[in-house]
Amino acid sequence: MSVQTYQLPKLPYDYDALEPYINKDIMVLHHTKHHQTYVNNLNAALKSQAEAVQAADIPTQVALQQAIRFNAGGHINHSLFWRNMCPAKSDDAKPSAAPKLVDKMKATWGDEATFRKAFNTALLGIQGSGWGWLIKVETGKEERLAITTTKDQEPVVGKGEVPIFGVDMWEHAYYLQYQNEKAKYVEQIWNVINWKTAEERFVGSRAEAFKDLKATL
Amino acid sequence: MTSTFLRSSALRTALRASAPKAPARAGLAGTSFVRGKATLPGLPYDYGALEPSISGQIMELHHNKHHQTYVTSYNNFSEQLEEAKQKQDIQAQIALQPLINFHGGGHINHTLFWENLAPKNQGGGEPPSGKLAQAINDSYGSLESFQQKFNTALAGIQGSGWAWLVQDTQTGSIQIKTYANQDPVVGQFRPILGIDAWEHAYYLQYQNRKAEYFKAIWEVINWKAAEKRLQ
Question: Within this chain, do residues B185 and B203 fall inside the same structural domain, yes or no?
Answer without folding.
Answer: yes
